[in-house]
Amino acid sequence: MDSNSKPTFEVCFSPALLGNYELEDKIVVVIDVLRATTSMCVAFENGAKLIVPVETTDESMSYREKGYLVGAERKGEKVEGFDFGNSPFSFMNEKIKGAKIAITTTNGTRAIRASIKADKLVVGSFANLKTLTDWLKKQNQNVLCVCSGWKNSFNLEDTLFAGALAYHLQEDFGLSYHRDSVLAAKHLYLISRQDLVGFLKNSSHYLRLHNLQIDKDIDFCLTANQTNVIPILKDGVLYEISKLEKANASY
Ligand code: 3SL
Description:
251 residues; alpha/beta
């Protein structure tokens, strides 16, 4: 990065487009608003020690014998035999305090694994919007938002969160060659921010979760600023950033 210029801000609409972006010099913000990255924030807010994001149910289950709580979501539902699925409310209990967790979800944990080459990888959701925005402003480093989407397709809710970041960071960051996705995300956020739930009512994943009768999860995931945690990846494992920084001041 040229020392006189602002760091760049980019938005990748799907993990399938990641090949178009350099990750190595960037902070990557992985976004799966409904619901994986929101639930990860909630788990850390409730005292989880660490979270291992994995791709398959077998991999997640293999952590049980190592003393982990294990989670798995497929088609929006908890997979039988696991401790929990992917509802933020399932991470709001005493069992989570101090727990080591392994989890696989349809898109969110895959997007994290696909972004592993990032210089730093953090997890974003409306739940930690302000804390994450403030932290990103202080880093002076190029940022790439990776929307988890749905099975490699574009989705609206992750784009809206990327747009919220774009809006709140616009004074501090410049746009790169990949500017159109940022402009589109910011525009969608600006026309929806007064009523995110209403704006998403016809979107695919809203309807998928609504049909499972978990509208309370949707409402929770679209509510801004419920926690000050920032999950950050180190050696394939997510930790809460302030705890990791204390343990390793040089990170
Ligand atoms: O796609 C994912 O990773 C999940 O967040 C989907 S769900 O909201 O749990 O159905």
